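Supplementary Data S3. Sequence and structure tokens for construct A.
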Amino acid sequence: MMDRLTKTLLVVVAALIILSPIGILLVWNYSDAWGEWDVSTVEHMVGQKLPGMEKLANAWNHAVLPDYNVPGWEDKLHASIGYIISAVVGVAVVLAVYYILVRLAAS
């Protein structure tokens, strides 16, 4: 049986997962969501070249769900579902890593 704190945390995480598409839906017809800018956009905003950002921009190109979405799902409904799937995958990965670290620490 789960204690009350665990149940509350699961409800909060589930609510955050369900609400995760709000950020992209609010800016759907305007621009990228806050903080999801590419190098050229940031350089334009700052007014100068950012060599460190340019160097690291392509350091990781192996995303399971690039842009938090399933490739080909471009409309609002499918993009929202893609965000929720990404959130579930992210939570699952974090919990798996946590579980492995706890197991390793306990042994």
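Construct B, processed identically:
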Amino acid sequence: MHANASAPDDAPVPLPITGELDLHTFAPRDLGELIPAYLEACQQRGICTVRIVHGKGTGTLRETVHALLRRSPLVVSYRLGDEHTGGWGATVATLRPQ
């Protein structure tokens, strides 16, 4: 019997809403749904600063994140992280208060 026999690989995994989203464990194809839903959940909980960790890599994931943030009506502004928030391996977004 497999350890995962009761939970298929595509079963939803509860995601803590803390204002920090590390994308390393997600497939890029899921980001179009994941990021807007996470931003909405943060806003509903009064979390107005969200740190999204995308890694440094080639920049493709960062560009995807920035494109999603640009299109989101919830986002007031965003910027790359600084020395305290992950440098260019993370993006910090400011959300509109609910």
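The chain is about 25% helix and 20% strand. Confidence is low (pLDDT under 50) at residues 1-7.
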